[in-house]
Amino acid sequence: MGLFRPLSQTASTLARCAKPAVARLSTSAIRQGGAWSYRTSPAPPPSWCAKGAPAIMTFTWWWIFHGVLTEPAHIFGFWDNYPDPREWTDQQLGIPADDE
Questions:
Q1: What is the CA radius of gyration of the chain?
Q2: What confidence tens digit (pLDDT) does each residue in 35-62 have?
Q3: pTM
Q4: What is the DSSP code string of the chain?
């Protein structure tokens, strides 16, 4: 028991000198997260956000539909005129001749 007495005295001294955990949490930085809305309706978004989001989505969907309607071959590949790979020769593929 005599071996643990200095260790327990050091631990009790450190415990008296240490700040409580509550003090460390109460000094944390305040975040700019907006209004707190527990069980209430949230704060309305800013007007630029309420007008900008539909404008961006309108442009995005216009871009998609314009691309599909004006150039459908990008989506549906059966309009592309790909060569038939069965008709390619060994010379076109870079395969050396079999001269054995």
A1: 36
A2: 666 788 878 889 999 999 999 999 999 9
A3: 0.42
A4: -TTTHHHHHHHHHHHHHSPPHHHHHHTSPPP------TTSPPPPPPHHHHHHHHHHHHHHHHHHHHHHHH-GGGT-GGGS-PPPGGG--HHHHTPPP---
Are 41 and 34 in contact by the 8 Å Cβ rule? The answer is no
**pLDDT tens for each residue of 10-29:** 777 766 666 555 555 545 56
Cα–chain-centroid distance for residue 29? 26
Contacts with 90 (C-beta within 8 Å, 6 or more apart), sequence order:
96, 97
How far apart CA 92 and CA 90 sit, in angstroms, is 5
